[in-house]
């Protein structure tokens, strides 16, 4: 369990450490690649910043695997939809890595309307000795050339370049909320509020619509898709969650249009807890398969639930993230915080789950020991290599030292996006425009 | 005239100062300034207050204050004047618990949220759907309670409103109303609510009651910095909303569209207007009331709606 963690804050010239948050710098997605060597972040300004883990060196064992900026590029630009007279935000909603198949790295990044496949590659050699142009690039007069030479590759400073290889556009009427790479590594899906499309990486002018919940009469719309993900091993299976707190598992082999689910996961409502906000807080903001593929985890406003794929009528585990907010729902509705979409993540072995909360708190739940911890991602509270102190929120009148009362929570500091290294205990936590990386303390 | 609301953002105004320069049609004995106790369930208040009550919650910089305990506080407040009247009335309806007040303010808040959507960027469909579901839920409950029955029996010959038109209109962007375009991010709940309420023609929507709306709506409530023309347009559109509610015509949505000034969706001027106001928070929704020059017609909004969908489908397939 991660009681002792070493803290490490990324401080780079790109992620500016201002006390106020520049809107464009607000991090909107965080994702490790499949080996954990790279960490990608997307922000509201449409930029992607990739961090790479330093190779461990024997000379400096304490500088074990720090993450440094590897590449930065502008993935999406703001656009204007002339047909509807509406702006299309350039905010990166999701980044998903492709498994590495050669020396280059590939990732998908998406804003509200367009998905792009980016290739990130290194260049550390440069050809020299061209015949038709000299070293400055000026063309040489062919009549002046008296002998031929073969260009040779000479080393140069490492340059990381990102190029857009595919642009998948014009397939979504509504805002894309999820993308998910299939385990066949040939297809991926993109989900918006009402539809899910299946793409082939090679084909950009065509996509298949596999789920469509748009009613014939938009006046009857009461439910939207909030998240979707492919099964990690079965390329025919995927799940999608809805704003009514339900999860549907679909099998693409049954029909071309998967409007009819194979499994339907819903927990019956607790009548004693019913209020006007029941539906809003039951809306699922994130759904994630476990690495094993056996479980799915869902995040709604107040809880995280773990479901067994074989049992549809209720989750097997429910964890309260910040139940002290239950009595504050009206205020949270009024200031729109109740619509915040928190994400959740599994650790590599599926034994611990993590999700964010307010006041820059994030929570971890150990599924085996049933212990949980609240930690805070803030500059004041964590010095490099200091141990993160568990935090506690007190609800009652009596506040102990070091506890924070519910009314003192800062609801503008929310941790919506977190990521966990695929094999080690390294987590990345995005707090507004700052990225925090924490590592498990190793003696 | 309209009450200017203190919108300092530090608290919800517990009292609203009436601009004394003009008279309202208020019973002299009752000048209740307090939002919470002047609930729509108190019919005398309703005669002059409903617009004010509808708009008052729109304080642009609402901080996170303790709304959840305010409901309790609200009941304890007394009006500045006419205490006996209020108390008498309250005594008459003392059987109604704070739950109703809570529900009513939640309804008001939800309707306002639906209306104040960002116009330049497509709004969040999930959020709109959730808010609309909440509104529908409240409305259903109020219908079952018969709460609306009670209001209506005490109303004096008011034209009945049988639809939650405000939701329909408020769900769409105002610009969309003018242009008749269907922004996919929005849904129309028009017929849905009409169906619910068609049976009971005497139900009244408290926040949108048909009453003489003060003509010169002060847009300082919205903290707009738009030029004077914009205020006029805004006022005009809001007036139209209430006029149609008075008319209680099933086609009032179309009426609304047909009467709206066509002049304000010239792209350039609209963008200019929007850009200058892009810093507004909750008031973003009113950017569209900047006044451009006329271009298209909005008479056949519904067919445009289907056409747009069709065009999008073609584009997607191509």
Automatic annotation (TrEMBL), chain A:
InterPro entries: PP2A_PR55 (IPR000009), PP2A_PR55_CS (IPR018067), WD40/YVTN_repeat-like_dom_sf (IPR015943), WD40_repeat_dom_sf (IPR036322), WD40_rpt (IPR001680). Gene3D superfamilies: YVTN repeat-like/Quinoprotein amine dehydrogenase. The keyword Protein biosynthesis does not apply. GO terms for cellular component: protein phosphatase type 2A complex. It comes from the Eukaryota. Coiled coil: none annotated. Keywords: Repeat, WD repeat. Belongs to the phosphatase 2A regulatory subunit B family. PANTHER family: PROTEIN PHOSPHATASE PP2A REGULATORY SUBUNIT B. This is Serine/threonine-protein phosphatase 2A 55 kDa regulatory subunit B.
TrEMBL record, chain B:
Residues 198-213 have a biased composition (Polar residues). It holds the Pfam family SERTA. One of its GO terms (cellular component) is nucleus. Residues 99-146 form the SERTA domain. PROSITE patterns: SERTA. Residues 181-213 are annotated as: Disordered. Coiled coil: none annotated. This is Cell division cycle associated 4.
